[in-house]
Amino acid sequence: MAEFLFEIGCEEIPARFIEDSLREGKNILNKLLSDYSINYSEIETYASPTRLVFRIKEIDVREEDKTVKVQGPPKRICLDENGNPTKALEGFARKNGIKLEDVRFEQGKTGEIAVAEKFVKGRETKEILKAVLPELLKKIPFRKNMKWGSLNVRFVRPIRWLLAILDEEVIDFEYAKVKASNKTNGHRILGKRNIEVKSFEDYAKKLEENLVIVDFKKRKQLIEEKIKSFEGKTGFKAIKDEDLLDEIIHLVEYPYIVEGEFDRKFLDIPEEVLITSMKEHQKYFAVRDNEGKLANRFLAIASIKEDVKGYVKNGNERVLAARLYDAKFFWDEDRKKPLFSRMEKLERMTFQSDLGTYADKIVRMVSLAEILKKHIEFDYYSTKETIELCKCDLATDMVYEFPELQGIMGGLYAKEEGKPYGIWKGIYDHYRPESFDDDIPETNEGIITSTTDKLDTFLGCLAVGIKPTGSKDPFGLRRASQGIVNIIFKKSLDFDFYRFVKECSSIYEKYLKIEREEWEKSVFSIFDSRISFFLEKNGFKYDEINSILAIPHGNLIDSFNRIKALKEIREDEDFLKVATSFKRINNILNSAKGFVKTSVNKSLLVESEERELYTKSVELKEKVENLAKEKNYLNALKEIAKLSVTVNTFFDKVMVMAKEEDLKQNRLSLLSELKGIFLTVADFSQLVVEKGKEEK
Fold this sequence. Notes:
By secondary structure, the protein is α+β, with helices and mostly antiparallel strands. Helices cover 48% and strands 13% of the residues.
């Protein structure tokens, strides 16, 4: 086995591109190598801002030799009338390097054909890689590619060197007029050029000597250790931000922490503005003092070994000061106008070309809230004001400069104006939750504003034909629908959400660019997938989820209570027997041609077992319906489980598909009635019951 090392050296790659492209590059390399008969260990990936690296610790030095079966022309054209080989047969043998006497004939799809066993010598891995690597370079995806010079080549940034070795031997190929070698480059300013390497261990060691730590996980660990060292030394605490850390590790090749300060007067600006200014524009970590207050300190990560003369520190402080002067100016200027005065500007700000302006969006959100108040209780007038103000900060200078602060700034400006807590905090929170694990809004005003905002975006975009795909979701429709589902579950909003959505459809009639049926199907399909995702994340199995989603499930809290009960009882032996019987009932009813359900005729219940099942099913129906009204689904399922012996005895003793048509139809109606009782709680046919479990 040999070691393979491939490095693509180029000008600085945008940090946000690196991990996705490494992952996709690894998948592509795996796929390319799978076309050949070589064994290899897992592909490892590494990166720095100026390189992407793929390493295989162990790979075969050549393919295995093999014998393959080759097919040739039909027998009728391989032999002449005397049975002698024709030119067609001779050509087949010559092409495959086999002797005529080794050819035989076998039955094919349209008659007998020539076949032979052909020996194929395995290719050397270095020759395979010589063909594979240019393909890899062509196929690695990036969010944006560029061309350079007169080359007809696209890559994220101009390629400056290629290192490709297999056990110290260079893989000889060229791409974008760059010839592969066994040489790499160190830090772009402080490192050496043309460093010769023999192996990955040698490569990593020499790069570190030249101020490049190629393992980005190690860079992350170093940054975390240096931040802890700073905290231990000063008593301050850096504000943890995993997203920022994950971006920074791809901005530096050799991490060094720079401790900086800014003028205390800037602490008068809201800390959200200061933190965002440091994070989004400068990639700095903000710092809190030992009392938890924001300190006039920051941590920058530089790609150097040390800053002896403080040039990097001073430079970062000057740049941040300029940013903070701008932020202070925006903060002071924006507060000179009340939020509501900016509504006029929203009438000229497009939300989406087919859905109109942000002012139009607010009108729709208010309409959604009017419908929603029929289903749940909330202070409509306070919420209406929250909705009307929630997008006004889009017309402020601060949000224009820092788009990440939309909503937050609106809340802060409303607070400065003296708006009640529910209103300003509702505006502040209304973009939440922005991810699955994000907190939901704190106030009822925030809950309703967030829900109507997300629902308007979701329903509106689907109405005009914008649907999320596997790779594209520009309006964040999956995130919006997941946010709504999370709010309903976490806030325990006990109402029929799907009924509410149907009532809202009239608001979007005039926007529809697709068939209404297709629109509604898309709406509920996506919501079903988001409900399923939430339940899965909360520990429920896929078959339990399917059992709940197979019956009406618009009331999400009700569905949650059902699935909790189902999860608790599913290991009960009697319940497993009933679940198995339900599947049998389902199959019988589905295969019964011409069956039309009617009321059960007691006079046609001729067998004692069917009379007993009828009597108990009538009793069960009343009990289950009463328990379901009380939302006591666990006890409802326990009552259903008690029927296991009666149902099994019925199937053992009674022929459902009787010869007499009236008996058959009556028994099918009895089973249909029983099925309806079971479906009061869940569709048990969706449950996967382990074979033999129900027979214990």
